[in-house]
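Write out this protein's structure.
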Amino acid sequence: MSSLLQVNDLKRHYEVHVPGGLFGRKASLKAVDGVSFAIDKGRTLGLVGESGCGKSTTAKLVLGLIPASSGTVEFDGSPVTARHDAEWRALRRRMQMVYQDPLGALDRRLPVVTQIGEPFAIHDPAMTAAERTERASLLMESVGLRADMAMRYPHELSGGQRQRVVIARALALEPDLLVCDEPVSALDVSIQAQVLNLLDDLRARTGFAALFISHDLKVVRQMSDRVAVMYLGRIVEAGLPEEVFRRPQHPYTKALVSAIPTPGRRGKRERIVLQGDPPSPVDVPRGCSFHTRCPIAQASCRSEVPRLVESGGHAVACHLVNAGAAPAVQAAE
């Protein structure tokens, strides 16, 4: 099966000015630094990692909202660029986004039925206003919104209802790919479950593929067919959810998995506590970018960048793991 979305060695570096010396100096902020992955039709890739690791920048690059420094993005065989021309708009009709903050993604001056019908006005100008309203009403029903909410404004809805409006608008044009950037992180836990179940149900019914971005590993595990773990602009581990979460290989993934709450588990749960903060993307360490926090780092980790090596569908970027000599990571007391 050919991939719907193919990302190859994608990079996004920003030139920044940092303090230092008399006038400071220019430096390169490596927001995304060589990311590659593929998503097949109807499948979901979960992208997980700490805040600031480059997940949201990756989402914008995939959609062509910002230009890449290097690398390529291909959607159904066509290159995705940030030229915002007619070709890009045609691709964007098939690629939609669900944003983290639903209130920020909606126009507070317009009723929600108008906003849900807005994609039709942009991509199908021949459609009448009455037809747009009818289609928008059907979309509201499909995401569990009542008909009497149609003329309400975003501030008159709850957080969960606003996110349903955003999802309905994203699905208006029946996209092939949905990019979900932390779609439930701003919602209460009970509402999160409702929105996740809604997305799962809609995916089963419509068959869209998805790039699902989150810092919550339990959410990613529930929603994904495949998982990629990102650290400081790079993917350090990728594989099937059960493989990644039950048998994590990279020391960073092990630390993340150890922090997942496990209700009802008896006895003391082992927790791997990483020391220090992630390095600045302006000053990425030589070699493996994780070596400054890694409890098993060796000399090669400080000088050579590890490649993402796949074996049996499970890929890991770690010198020691790929050499077959990774010792156990000790849990903190």
